[in-house]
Amino acid sequence: MHLLPDSGPVPAPEQRRIPRHQLTAYLAVYNSLTGRPFGYIGNLSSHGIMLLCAMPVMLNEEYHLELHLPELSAKDYPRCIRFKARSRWCRADVTPGHYDCGFSISHNREAFAGLTTALQRYFTFGDFAGA
To answer: What is the 3-state secondary structure (H, E, C) of the chain?
Structure first.
């Protein structure tokens, strides 16, 4: 008799009223000197940014970064914002092999002034907020 491996329980059908959005896939940050991926935005303000990184960062160092944005609005924001940020803290994320890293924006802070509002508008889930 040949036994088939147990594939585990059958996943439940999707019951979401709105689709799940993997925001980190849209909010990539790159090292602007090398072009290599640096991390993904976990949180941001006009003064700072928290990145989810695959490697820990050295503290109190200045990094040359660029933020690749979805097309928010051609007249409001460029697709790529270059900036400098100084690392302030770094800790292991709850996901093994990932790190939460906090930075203060040290150059081109004005580009972040209205970015939070623009991103909220872009990723709005419409009328589902009250559902």
So the answer is: CCCCCCCCCCCCCCCCCCCCCCHHHCCEEEECCCCCEEEEEEEECCCEEEEEECCCCCCCCEEEEEEECCCCCCCCCCCEEEEEEEEEEEEECCCCCCEEEEEEEEECHHHHCCHHHHHHHHCCCHHHHHC
* pLDDT above 60 (res 93): yes
Q: Would you say the pTM of this structure is higher than 0.90?
A: no
Residues 44-83 as b/e (b if ≥16 CB within 10 A, e otherwise) read beeebbbbbbeeebeeeeebebbbebeebeeeebeeebeb
Domains assigned to the chain: 23-120 (2.40.10.220)
Which amino acid is it at 100?
D
Cα–Cα dist 62/69, whole Å: 22
Question: Per-residue pLDDT tens for 67-89?
Answer: 887 665 545 556 788 999 999 99
